[in-house]
Structure formats: C-alpha cells, structure tokens
Design brief:
The chain is 43% helix and 13% strand. The chain is an alpha/beta fold. It has a 3-stranded parallel β-sheet with strand order 1-2-3. A two-stranded antiparallel sheet has the order 4-5. Strand 2 (82-86), helix 5 and strand 3 (113-117) form a beta-alpha-beta unit. Helix 2 runs parallel beside helix 4.
C-alpha cells in the first residue's frame, strides 16, 4: 500500500499507448489518477492541452492525438515530482507535440523531473540532458 501511495503521489506515467478506459469519460479517466481532483483542476489541465471541450466525451469519440493528450493530463493531475514518458507525442501532430514539450519545459522549470524516451531528435532537443541508447548501451 505504501509503495502504491508513493507512486500515485510522486510519479506520473505517460505511455506510448494511452491506456484509457473506454467506458469512462475523459474527466473520469483523469479522476482515476486523482479522485480528489476538482472539476476546475481537470478543466484547467485540459485547457492547457487544448482539449477542454472533450471532458464528457468517451475515448472512442475522440482522435488518437486527443486520447494521448488525455493520457498526458491523467499523468499530470497529481503534480508529480517525476514523470516517465514513453514516446509521449508519438500520436500527435507537430503543433500539439510542441505544445506538450513546452508544458514539460514549464514543469521542469518548476522542479518536476521528466524522463522521456523518444526517437524524435527534435523533441529530444527540449531536454537538459540527452542520453542516447544503442543496442541497450548508453553511448
């Protein structure tokens, strides 16, 4: 239980696949990560990600890129100290990818550590440190 609580309050995960629950609305999917989150907190986060109008939609009613941004909102709703992101913008167009990395940069400036696995060199340029891995070894 203690490790679950630690993970829930300190670590956010953004997976390459969004892993949203289809029978829950966008807002309900985000609330899974933080049942204490207010509707206003969720709305503000969705607004930053440019999907505030999707709160009551279901995952199958929105695009893949929108689903990915919901998954990002779910990871951010607890204001975690550390975020692990696996190809977080893989399903997004360049404009929304840029928006997500600007949000990440802003979070970093406020003290959040974000670890991103990506093949996208342009996205990697947002990083403070880049470690290139080839054949399982850090280059």
């Amino acid at each position: 239980k203690d490790i679950d609580d630690f993970r829930k309050t300190n670590i956010g995960f953004i997976f390459q696949l969004h892993y949203l629950i289809n029978y829950l609305t966008v807002k309900e999917n985000i609330k899974l990560a933080n049942e204490k989150a207010t509707d206003n907190e969720i709305y503000n986060l969705l607004k930053i990600l440019r999907i505030e109008n999707l709160s009551n939609k279901y995952p199958n009613e929105i695009s893949g890129g929108q689903r990915q941004r919901v998954a990002i909102a779910r990871a951010l709703i607890n204001n975690p100290k550390v975020i692990f992101a696996d190809e977080p913008t893989g399903n997004l167009d360049s404009k929304n990818s840029l928006n997500v990395f600007e949000i990440f940069k802003s979070l970093c400036e406020k003290g959040t550590t974000i670890i991103v696995a990506t093949h996208d060199k342009e996205s990697a340029n947002f990083a403070n440190k880049i470690y290139e891995v080839k054949d399982g070894k850090i280059q």
